[in-house]
Structures are given as C-alpha cells and as structure tokens.
Amino acid sequence: MIKMKEITKTYQMGDTEVKALNKVTFNMDKGEFVSIVGPSGSGKSTLMNILGCLDVPDDGDYFLDGIDINNSNDLELAHIRNKKIGFVFQNFNLLSKLNAVENVEVPLMYRGLSAKQSKEIAYNYLDKVGLKGREKHTPKELSGGQQQRVAIARALACEPQIILADEPTGALDQKTGLEIMGILNELNGRGQTIVLITHDPKIAKQVKRSVSIVDGQLIDETR
Q1: CA torsion sign, 210 to 196 to 43 to 68?
Q2: In whole angstroms, how large is the CA radius of gyration of the chain?
Q3: Domain named ABC transporter: which ranges (predicted)?
Q4: Mean pLDDT, to the nearest integer, of 201-210?
C-alpha cells in the first residue's frame, strides 16, 4: 500500500537549511493501523504531508498503491487525494455555517454525486460514528468530540483507501480522546487502513504498530 525509500525533504529558513526528513524509509500494508509519534519539530507533519500527497519529497521514492507519487503532477496528486485519502485534523476543519450533514456532503458533491446521493451517504456515515439525531446541528452546537466524529464521517464518506489522522485527539479531553481512538480502532477492525500522527506516546501505544520519528529520522519501530 505505502512504500517509501530514503525520503528526504529540506526547507530553507532564512540562511539556514533545515532537513525535515532525512532518508526516511517506511512501508505499510493495506489494513494496517500505524501511529507515527514524535515531538514538535521532529518531522512528523512533513512526513504526513508527503504521505497525504500534499507535498512531494526532494529525493527518495514514494509509491502509494502502486502509483509513483514523485512523478505525479499537481492535477494527478489532487485526484489521488480525492480518491484514495481521507483526512482527519486536530482542529476538525468543519465549515462553521454548515450543519453536520452538509459538512459531510461537501466532498461528495465535489466528486460529482447528486444531492440526493450525497445526503443519503452523509446520514449513513454520521449514524456509523454515533451522531444519529445530531445531523442538523452546526459545529458550534456540537461538542469537540462530536465535531471530530463529523470530521471522521466526512473522511469515510468518500470511501478512501487510507485515512490520515493528524493529532485527532489533540484538541480533546482525555475521555473524549479515548472515544475517538475507539472509533478509529473499530474502523481498522473492519479493514480500514489508518495512519495516526501524534506527539502523545500514550495515544501511540493504543495502536498495534508504532513508529517513532526524531530529527527527521525514524529511530524505532515496534509491532
């Protein structure tokens, strides 16, 4: 599913060259749930951006489901993100003026589905994440945990091959964070491939396989 070999990414910050990723090699099979854990500035966000086809490496090889990401143009990368990847972010990234159903519908409409199809799918996935009866609530009428459930439903609605969850519990209290982790583990139990980015070792330990990143290098891997 994911094959990365000696991925390098360097940024120029003023007169200083910063190597965010230094020859990172990372492989992941379909149906796995992997956490990537590291402190702020370790390179985990850069790695997630490359995994999610939001950025490309300066050097190294990245194949996603057999596709050579390095040699894909911007339009092809956008198509890959739309078809293969679902994103879940720390701050939910919901549209404040839309209710839960409408937030889930947005990416479906972009994919060309009819309004009727999009609404049916949105209701179905909101039900799956435990939000039946909350479909018409706007983000400000939902708790943080409920907003993250909407974000997960939105990611799932397009039936992505991979979910990339970037600090999905970071803005939540401990109890609610555990509930969100429970949902992600349940999804993985049904065969969903998930990459979880976190700075919290306690969260990382709730995942079967954990990879640590420090100073742009993977230094430890457990199964």
Answers
A1: positive
A2: 17
A3: 2-223
A4: 90
